[in-house]
Amino acid sequence: MRVLQLLLAVLVILLLQGAPDTQQCRNSRGHCRRLCFHMERWEGSCSSGRLHCCR
């Protein structure tokens, strides 16, 4: 049971680390996606580098 609690704590920390990148992307009118569409530009990364910030 203690192992599950530790894994949950690590997961929450990892999710919270990606939050500022995601919020910064949204503040610049971008969207976090795996791939940008052909009319969008890649502006940075979201979720600790797993997604692209597309505008």
Strand numbers in spatial order across the main sheet:
1-3-2
Count of the separate structural domains: 1
Number of strands: 3
Structural class: alpha+beta
Distance between the termini: 43 Å
> Mean pLDDT across all residues, rounded?
82
Kindly state the percentage of residues in helix.
40-55%
Tell me the overall shape.
Answer: elongated
Number of helices: 1
Q: Which ranges are low-confidence, i.e. pLDDT below 50, for 5 or more consecutive residues? A: none
Q: What proportion strand?
A: 15-25%
The whole-angstrom Rg is 14 Å
* Helix-strand string: HEEE
The oligomeric status of these chains comes to single chain
Specify the biggest β-sheet: 3 strands, antiparallel
Subcellular location: Cytoplasmic granule; Secreted
GO biological process, one term: innate immune response in mucosa
Family: Belongs to the beta-defensin family.
Protein name: Beta-defensin-like domain-containing protein
Describe this entry's structure for a reader.
The chain contains one helix and three strands; from the N terminus they run H-E-E-E. It has one helix spanning 2-27; strands at residues 31-33, 42-46, 51-54. It has one domain (2-54). A three-stranded antiparallel beta sheet has the order 1-3-2. Strand 2 (42-46) and strand 3 (51-54) form a beta hairpin. The radius of gyration is 14 Å and the shape is elongated. The chain is an alpha+beta fold. Residues 21-55 form the Beta-defensin-like domain. Keywords: Antibiotic, Antimicrobial, Defensin, Disulfide bond, Secreted, Signal. One of its GO terms (molecular function) is CCR6 chemokine receptor binding. It holds the Pfam family Defensin_beta. Belongs to the beta-defensin family.
